[in-house]
């Protein structure tokens, strides 16, 4: 069982909190072991939208598989930012030091900055406060105009609804793209917005359609993209002929089923390579029998 704990500060934006919470709650509904908790420095937390929230004051015991998320808050001027106590900042630092992941939505990046977690790391925040974040934390590498960044288990996202993209990314990283796609579809989030490479997830980018037959085929490809998937198997699972599936798939996604599978393999391989895997080992992991195919696809994409 993994915990995701939301640290709430006064003036928290409801969607900064509710979007990621819905993603993890939906993943748990599908049988993936997430429990949600809410911690604050005072029991009742006022929100930017006027609805008060009630949180616990004590932190649960957290391990390396657990996640802390700091949703953003309404901010206007530096003097108006909420005070965050030293004890809470120490929890953020210590959790990361023990191998855990810390994430933020919107202005929540400021809390990570105060904890020293942005020093030397790529990060982002809402476009209205990007310059202010860079000014306050000059050692942070603030990346403008992207949905989210991930750097050494410090994950930051842009404004408000981008917290959903961040949470889907974390679900995909932990449980695979098929689960993230399942959660996104349940939430009626069929498409992920384009942005920097980590945001351009193929398993959501090509879900911006309402064709149930194609969705069924994509569900199977998402779950088994690293294994051989003959067109006949996909068509049988979708309940149509091979020719019909190819036509519907291309019309809905702009790709053939094979090209879609290759796109998922390439995206996963790039993730593995960015974390230290060799091209050959990444190719084998994602299902390419010949690493030269991965090299050709990478060169074509570049």
What order do the helices and strands come in, and which of them pair?
Blueprint: E1 2-8, H1 14-29, E2 34-40, E3 44-45, E4 53-54, E5 67-70, H2 86-97, E6 101-105, H3 109-114, E7 122-123, H4 130-136, E8 141-142, E9 148-151, E10 154-157, H5 162-175, H6 177-186, H7 202-205, H8 212-224, H9 231-238, H10 242-253, H11 257-274, H12 279-286, H13 291-301
Parallel strand pairs: 1-2, 1-5, 5-6, 6-10, 7-8
Antiparallel strand pairs: 3-4, 9-10
Structure description:
The chain starts with a strand and ends with a helix. Helix content is 46%, strand content 13%. The chain has a six-stranded mixed sheet. The protein has a two-stranded antiparallel ribbon with strand order 3-4. Strands 7-8 form a two-stranded parallel ribbon. With 302 residues, it is of the alpha/beta class. It is globular.
Number of strands: 10
Largest sheet: spatial strand order = 2-1-5-6-10-9
SS class: alpha/beta
Number of helices: 13
Secondary-structure element order, as H and E? EHEEEEHEHEHEEEHHHHHHHHH
Please describe the structure with a list of short key phrases separated by commas or semicolons.
302 residues; alpha/beta; 13% strand; 10 strands; two-stranded antiparallel ribbon; 13 helices
Task: Give a quick precis of the structure.
By secondary structure, this protein is of the alpha/beta class. It is built from 13 helices and ten strands. A hairpin with a 7-residue loop joins strand 3 and strand 4 (53-54).
């Amino acid at each position: 069982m993994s915990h995701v704990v939301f640290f709430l500060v006064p003036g928290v934006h409801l969607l900064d909190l509710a979007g990621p919470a819905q993603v993890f709650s939906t993943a748990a509904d599908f049988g993936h072991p997430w429990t949600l908790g809410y911690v604050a420095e005072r029991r009742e937390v006022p929100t930017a939208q006027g609805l008060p929230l009630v949180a616990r004051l004590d932190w649960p015991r957290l391990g390396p598989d657990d996640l802390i998320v700091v949703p953003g808050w309404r901010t206007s001027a530096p003097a108006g930012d909420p005070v965050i106590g030293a004890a809470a900042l120490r929890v953020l630092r210590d959790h990361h030091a023990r191998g855990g992941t810390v994430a933020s939505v919107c202005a929540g990046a400021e809390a990570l900055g105060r904890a020293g977690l942005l020093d030397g790391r790529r990060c982002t925040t809402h476009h209205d406060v990007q310059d202010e974040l860079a000014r306050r934390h000059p050692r942070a590498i603030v990346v403008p105009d992207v949905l989210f960044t991930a750097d050494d288990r410090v994950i930051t996202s842009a404004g408000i609804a981008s917290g959903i993209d961040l949470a889907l990314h974390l679900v995909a990283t932990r449980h695979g793209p098929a689960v993230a796609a399942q959660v996104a579809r349940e939430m009626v989030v069929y498409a992920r917005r384009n942005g920097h490479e980590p945001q351009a997830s193929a398993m959501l980018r090509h879900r911006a359609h309402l064709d149930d037959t194609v969705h069924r085929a994509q569900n199977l490809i998402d779950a088994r993209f690293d294994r051989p998937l003959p067109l006949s198997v996909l068509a049988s699972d979708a309940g149509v002929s091979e020719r019909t599936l190819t036509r519907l798939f291309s019309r809905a996604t702009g790709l053939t089923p094979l090209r879609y599978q290759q796109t998922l393999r390439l995206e996963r391989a790039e993730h593995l390579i960015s974390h230290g895997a060799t091209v050959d080992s990444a190719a084998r992991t994602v299902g390419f029998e010949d690493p030269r195919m991965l090299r050709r696809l990478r060169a074509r994409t570049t």
